Amino acid sequence: MKVLVTGGAGFIGSAVCRYLIEETEHKVVNVDKLTYAANLESVALVADDDRYAFEKADIADREAMDTIFERHQPDAVMHLAAESHVDRSITGAGEFIQTNIVGTFVMLEAARAYWEGLSADRKDAFRFLHVSTDEVYGSLGDEGLFTEETAYDPSSPYSASKAASDHLLTAWQRTYGFPGLISNCSNNYGPYHFPEKLIPLVTLNALEMKTLPVYGDGSNVRDWLYVRDHARALLLILQKGKLGEKYNVGGNNERTNLQVVHAICDTLDDLRPADKPRRNLIEFVTDRPGHDARYAIDSTRLQTELGWKPEENFESGLEKTIRWYLDNETWWRPLREKNYAGERLGLLKTG
Ligand code: NAD
Ligand code: TYD
User: Fold this and answer.
1) Which of 2, 161, 264, 314 is the right S-S partner for 253, CB 3.0 to 4.6 Å?
2) What average pLDDT does the chain have?
3) Ligand 2 pocket: which of 257, 264, 287 to mutate (most atoms <8 Å of CB)?
4) How far does residue 10's CA lie from ligand 1's centre (Å)?
């Protein structure tokens, strides 16, 4: 199968590209605009493989997408390209609307035109997997889990833009019979994660003995999944998922943000002893506007219908991740120096 992966120079997309090339026989066409969040170093391990191709392009550029479909003749699409950081969406929603909504619309139209022109066999086999987030469901209270039936109730400009793109996919499926699938995944972590997100930011700040910003009182809960487990789930959904279905992806690893930050501090204290415990670096800072209290995923459908099971638990995955950052300074140092140095994002001006 030749899979067109959008956003393959980002965190999860690059894990998907590496997984497809390293662990399967499939071919990959990576389509990425290379925004601040992208890094071609994240696909360096597979970039020279004959089964891998890269196209620098904007998913909102219809002409470019038509050309890429025509040139590469993919059998399937895994659509991950997006603006992905909630804090950035709070102070600048425009790019999120443009890429996540308009870009997904353009991808759907380009893919639909291409699909319509395929031979009967190839048309029948074609799949478009739209990769989305559990944040479309909004916030949970202390009890319960998000299921595929949970009503959408997004809180941030980011999650609202992802919710809109999910609705487009469903509409294309119902209206045009377009062979679409949606996955809604919980928070990912792992190697090659851009250091604006909680786990890599805190890891690198803690390594450099800088302050560790915890929003509010640190009691917000996220359900963490190791990125390679997500990549495995996505291929399974693409190949075996029922058309028109949604699949929740999550690893039953609920942690408060403070628990996550403590775990990073303690692991680093073991691996790189310092003159004081890193927990002393924690600083409770102004909360994120519209901060969702709790996310937790019920992935029973994916587990029972498609046989997926995560391989990492949070402790094993976190240690692997921290060791990776210790061993791969050449990957993150230039990003910290040129793209984003760790300053607070997503605060509204007061007064
Ligand atoms: P990321 O920000 O690390 O990477 C996004 C990639 O998309 C970047 O390489 C960027 O250059 C590319 N891109 C952005 N705009 C583009 C455009 N207009 N045209 C082409 N390429 C463009 O994001 P990520 O964390 O890897 O997330 C990937 C996808 O998975 C997103 O759709 C996100 O909503 C979804 N998701 C993320 C998480 C998570 O925890 N990170 C969880 C669930 C779902
Ligand atoms: P983040 O990694 O931005 O992912 P998301 O907002 O998509 O869940 O944040 C994870 C949690 O960590 C979220 O509750 C906000 C919190 N957070 C902090 O407490 N401090 C930080 O510096 C960052 C970036 C996030």
Assistant:
1) 314
2) 97
3) 257
4) 6
The answer to whether the beta carbons of residues 78 and 180 sit under 8 Å apart is no
Q: How far is the CA of 280 from the centre of ligand 1 (A)?
A: 33
Whole-angstrom CA distances from 297 to 113, 224, 248, 294, 308 are 34, 10, 7, 10, 14
Name the residue type at position 302: L
Region of residue 30 (phi > 0: left; psi between -120 and 50: alpha; otherwise: beta): beta
254-256 and 221-223 beta bridge pairing:
antiparallel
Atom 29 in ligand 1: residue holding the nearest Cα: 80
**In the block, which residue shows the tokens 């996955």?**
183
pTM (2 decimals)? Answer: 0.98
Q: Which ligand is nearest to the CA of 286?
A: 2
Residue nearest to atom 17 of ligand 2 (CA): 198
pLDDT attached to residue 340? 93
Collapsed DSSP state (helix, strand, coil) of residue 189: strand
Q: What average pLDDT does the segment 271-275 reach?
A: 97
**Tokens 């030749």 appear where?**
2
User: What residue's CA is closest to ligand 1, atom 28?
Assistant: 80
Q: Which ligand is nearest to the CA of 6?
A: 1
- The two tokens of residue 133 are 């987030």
Q: What CATH superfamily is the domain 2-194+224-253+294-311?
A: NAD(P)-binding Rossmann-like Domain (3.40.50.720)
Every domain of the chain and the residues it spans: 2-194+224-253+294-311
Tell me, what's the pLDDT at 309? 96
Closest Cα partner for 287 from 263, 257, 259, 261? 257
End-to-end CA distance of the chain: 56
E runs forming strands in the chain: 2-6, 27-32, 52-56, 76-79, 127-133, 180-185, 188-189, 212-215, 221-223, 225-226, 246-249, 254-256, 282-285
